[in-house]
Amino acid sequence: MAAELMDGVAVARAVREDVARGVADLVARGVTPGLAVVLVGEDPASTVYVRNKGKACEEAGMRSVTIRMPATTSQGELLAQVDALNADPAIHGILVQMPLPPQCSADEVIRRIDPAKDVDGFHPVNAGRLLIGDPDGFAPCTPAGVMELLRRYDVPTKGAEVVVIGRSNIVGKPMGALMIQPGVDATVTTCHSRTRDLAGHARRADILVAAIGRARFVTADMVKPGATVIDVGINRVEEPRSKTGYVLAGDVDFAAVREVAGRITPVPGGVGPLTIAMLLKNTLRAASRVAP
Ligand code: NAD
């Protein structure tokens, strides 16, 4: 039997509606949550993400500010912009869209953002808070979105075997950290490009999270029957018959794996929409802290 589809669009909508209610409460108390997104250069994918973030913010009743800086922006100019946003009381969340041009250091820029405004959850202070289970921190939006999806679909996590493929700072590592939090209580294995017998690990998973960046990498023989399969990957695959010349594919071979899995996220429409919803949720939390 084909797996149940986990509808990220519907879950994201529900999260955004919750956020909009929270925003309305804050506005009534005199605080309009504000998110600033800094875009350096004109990377086409980034431009689309930034536009979508701005739109989602406004739909939730938040103030959205997009700061566009030329691709020639120096590190000093970018840091000065971050400093200005850190000091601006109308801005509660700051996001610097990656990738940055080569003359700018992402690490240094992330470290410059006030951790209280770091709604992307990438600052080392927030990474540390996530590890020690400090609820004042911000978790990175994509793995936080996966947790939201699991909660809303009542996927049991207590004592579950979770296998995460990928160890990036923005998805794989924080995903593992979230899964072992008390209350979630999963047992986590993190796999990566040097893992021996990846398929053997993956086949033990009750919940398999793929965050690899390689189209259709997870095949049906890597999945335990009935497992929940979460596909974080977004990859462009050439497809001459498509108008754009490409299609989007996840890290999971969706057509084959859905015949084995118990639940599965599609791409697009699975994890992707949750990322922006969790960004709004983090921004609302950041603004709530300064509200009277
Ligand atoms: P990354 O390149 O930083 O990390 C990829 C990870 O995959 C690495 O840790 C690497 O060890 C592992 N890996 C690579 N090849 C492997 C192999 N052969 N076997 C096992 N592990 C292997 O990527 P990322 O930033 O974590 O993103 C992963 C995917 O998720 C990408 O497709 C990206 O586009 C997507 N993504 C989606 C969202 C979203 O839905 N909003 C957000 C972030 C990333």
Furnish the topology, listing elements before pairings.
Elements: E1 4-5, H1 8-28, E2 34-40, H2 44-59, E3 63-69, H3 75-87, E4 93-96, H4 106-112, H5 124-132, H6 141-152, E5 161-165, H7 172-179, E6 187-191, H8 198-203, E7 207-210, E8 228-231, E9 235-238, E10 246-249, H9 254-257, E11 263-264, H10 272-290
Parallel strand pairs: 1-11, 2-3, 2-4, 5-6, 5-7, 7-8, 8-11
Antiparallel strand pairs: 9-10
The structure holds nicotinamide-adenine-dinucleotide.
Measured by DSSP, the beta-strand proportion falls in 15-25%
Q: Judging from the principal axes of the Cα atoms, what is the shape?
A: globular
> Taking strands numbered 1, 2, ... along the chain, how are they ordered across the largest sheet?
1-11-8-7-5-6
For this structure, what is the CATH class of the largest domain? Alpha Beta
Query: Count the strands?
Result: 11
What is the string of SSEs from the N terminus onward? Answer: EHEHEHEHHHEHEHEEEEHEH
Question: What is the number of helical segments per DSSP (H or I, 4+ residues)?
Answer: 10
Q: Which small-molecule species are bound to the chains here?
A: nicotinamide-adenine-dinucleotide
Question: Any guess at the CATH architecture of the largest domain?
Answer: 3-Layer(aba) Sandwich
Number of folding domains? 2
Computed Rg: 19 Å
What is the first-to-last residue Cα distance? 53 Å
Largest sheet: 6 strands, parallel
How would you classify the helix and strand content by structural class?
Answer: alpha/beta
Helix share bin: 25-40%
